[in-house]
Write a structure and sequence with these properties.
The complex is a heterodimer of chains A (451) and B (286). Chain A has 451 residues and is mainly α. Chain A contains 20 helices and no strands.
Amino acid sequence: MNFFPPDLSAHYLTYLFVPVAQTIGMACAGMLLAFLFGTPLAIIVATRAPGARAISAVLAALRAIPDLTLAILAVVLLGLGPAAGIAALWIFYTAMIGKVFAELLLAAPSAPIDALRATGAPRAALAAFGMIPMMFADLLTFGMYSFECAMRAAIIVGAVGGGGLGTELVGTINALDYHRAATLIIVLVACIAAVDVFGMFVRRHPQAALVLIPLGVITLWIDRPQLFAVGHAVTTFAAMLPPQLNPQELAALPNLLWQTAEIAIFGTALGAVIGFLIALVAARGIVPLAIVIVTRRVLDTLRAIPEIIWGLILVVSVGVGPLAGIFALGLHSGGVLGKLYSEAFENVDRSPVASIMATGAPMPATVAFAIVPLALGPIAVNTLFRLEWNARAAAVVGMIGAGGLGQALFLAQQLFFYKTMAAYVAITWLIVLIFDTLGDRIRGRSITAMT
Amino acid sequence: MTHRLTRQSLLQVIGAGLLLGSGTAPVGAAAALRIGMVPDAGATQVSIDEKAPLRDYLTMKIGKPVELVIPTNYNATVEALGNGSLDFAYLGGLTYVKAHQAYGVIPLVQRASDRQFHCLFITQTNSSIQKLTDLRGKKFAFGDVASTSGHLMPDYALRNAGVDPDKDLTVRYTGNHPATAKAVESGAVDAGAIDESVYKSLIDGGQIDKTKVRVFYTTPPFVDYVWVARKDMAKADQDSLSNAFLSLKEPSDDKILSILRGTSFVRADDAEYATLRSVATQLKLL
């Protein structure tokens, strides 16, 4: 399984134009729809229009379905290709934008809004002339952030048949073509880096984001026959109801849940260890800047590759089974946590550190007795938050053969046992919902405790 | 009141959008025939490129542009036939039976070898496994869960030999045949079940080291792959596709036949799949 050298021939790179265009188009189209649907919903929620509470609840429920699970559903309902990817992104990000935009709009200063309301302005006007202009910068920041996430998601939904780079990567790995898989991983990391750079540019020149609209519209136009294949989607959806598991599947359920828990817990633990070790050599003030620059790029790369893509690479080397899932979550989480930990190290109160150093303590001792103990708070919070995220990731990463709920869901889909599949979707959804709620509670409590 | 109005207008907007979408859809879709193939050996731009001679041959024979599509998985291929995003497809036996049941797809042609297809059980050259019963307690790789030669028939063969895959084996689904070969070659599993034609092409192509793996069991013959049309496909197009395959002859069409990993084609019909159907039902895969 030799990944080197990657295939960088002009012949192959020209081939990649289509998958890259599909992936970018999918992200643009999905986000375009998400903004079109999410913004009005956010306004309804923020202005407390009738139905606001119901919409809020629906958005929260939708957000708890992992994007990859949505993508599987979309592939079943709409068939293969970017249309399925677009639909999955559309739903996931409509829920995300609906919720976060609503919160941002509500955070607008209340005095000007009250003044507007006093003039008898209708709700739409409150939003259009009050909340949106006042919160524009924040809306834009979050909008761009979610576009970056959508780009990553567009790659991973490809892995289950949504088209684009993800589909191509699964294909090359399945065909044992590792040199080309390596090329694809490079292209994928480059795409994500390009979107990051573009995001920074848009924050300074907001009008630049407008170029994404035609890209989205063109993709939607190309994929319109599938997006409107409503008849098939409805019959297939009907075939999923009611969700059910036979006695044998029910008996196997505790084991599936345990496998998923195992992937989430050990994956987070591995990520914490990797992140901690790299963070020690990625924090300014501990090591020279030259080293920091190098190690930060290592963390960026670990983070740029989504869990499911790590999983696909890893099943090749460590084989299928929970171990592949644990490593997949561990490597991605390592990148995320490494960055957060190194920032925590940099943000510690300098005076205790300085006094330890004044005693003539060498750097390792200073790190062990001053910097690390001082950073433990943020490290714990970030690790717990990651565990919550990984509960969701573990439920889907199983799909690549790592076991647990994800794999059960995928196998049921492959065998067309849609009622069974729907049951696993429902269980995944419940678990994520429980973890989200618990996480919110715990965070709420710890914030209260701190203040 | 406002509540109901909002919901009503929302529905109207969606409805209008749908009408607009379907109303303006051009008949362009009818211009090119979309032909799908299950990804039994991987799905990439390159593997489609490698099949370009097949696409060109079919375009010439049918007299219409042909587009080859290889979805990432078996399910997506069948759903695409169901929603009309594919016109024809190359399916495995079990996938065919499911697609026939769900969407009434029409069997057209198959390789002569598909009538007498085999699944091979492979292991490492130096392993102690010599027969199916030696597999008890071992790590075993099936291909895709919906594959005939990668899961259904080897599962059946194991049960007939008194080995219950659910209880006696630690089972992995690798997703496709080359991945199974790789898992056995690398020792990630002790043994695996693989499609005979894919195995041969992996060994011939050198992608799998023939000194590291060996075949220790071959299943009795069964019916496998078939080319199908979606049920509302025009009869004329069905016939031209069938004829394109039936007229393939050695040695003049060797290039295309090798892409298809076959030597000649015969007509296929649903009755051939009766045994496979009952096996699938028995194993609760249908």
